[in-house]
C-alpha cells in the first residue's frame, strides 16, 4: 500500500503524533484493566507487561509511516519475540490475545478522528483502517505461532527431564551402579535407557551394572530385545551387566513367549547380585 502525496503524508503524520500522545495513557489503561480482570496471572508481571505495551504502541506509531509490506514484516518480528516472552512469563494464550482489541479500538478511533478533522475522503479512510486491521491480525497470528512454539519447546524439555528421571542410574559403590526400572518401557524410554546407561556408565567409570526390572509390569519380546541391546552395548564398554528382579509371573510370561535369558546373568534381587559381585572380587 503506497501512501503518496502531501495530503496523505499529513494524515499519517497527525495519526502518528496522536498515537504518541496517548501512548502512556493507553498502556496504563490496558495494564489496569487486564490486571483487574486476571489478577492472579497478570498482577505479578504487570510492570513487565506495561513496558511491553509501551513498545507495541511505539511500534505502531512507526508502522503508520511504513509501507504495508514493511509494517507487516516488523509486526511479525514483534509477534515472534513477544509471543515467546509471554509464554515464558506463564501467561495463557487466551489472556494474552484478549487485549488486542484495546489497540484495534483505540487506533481505529484515532484514524477516524484525524480523518474527520482533516476531511479525508472515503477511499483514504478505508485504506488507513484496512492497514490497521491487517497489522493487528498479523500481530495476533505471529504472536500465536511463537507462543505455541515456545509452549511446545517447554513441554518437550519437561518431557525429556521427566524421562531422564525415569532412567536413574544410581551408584551403589565404587564402579557399581543399579538402574531400577519402574513402569512400562515404550520405544522412547527404551532409546533413553540405552543412551543414559552408556553415558552414565562411561562417566562414572562403572564396571558392574545392575538392571533391576522388579518394577516393570510386563517383559515382552520388545522389552527383552531392548534389555539385550543395552547389555551388549555395555559389554562393548567393558561393563558387565546383569538383570535382577524378574518376578515369577514375569518369568512364566517370558517362557511362554520363548524369551531366552540364558546368555545373561540374572539374580532374584539387587542384594543377591551385589553378593555375587563381591564374592567374585574376593576370588580375584
TrEMBL record:
<dbReference type="InterPro" id="IPR051932">
    <property type="entry name" value="Bact_StressResp_Reg"/>
</dbReference>
<dbReference type="InterPro" id="IPR002645">
    <property type="entry name" value="STAS_dom"/>
</dbReference>
<dbReference type="Pfam" id="PF01740">
    <property type="entry name" value="STAS"/>
</dbReference>
<dbReference type="InterPro" id="IPR036513">
    <property type="entry name" value="STAS_dom_sf"/>
</dbReference>
<protein>
    <submittedName>
        <fullName>STAS domain-containing protein</fullName>
    </submittedName>
</protein>
<feature type="domain" description="STAS">
    <location>
        <begin position="166"/>
        <end position="277"/>
    </location>
</feature>
<keyword id="KW-0597">Phosphoprotein</keyword>
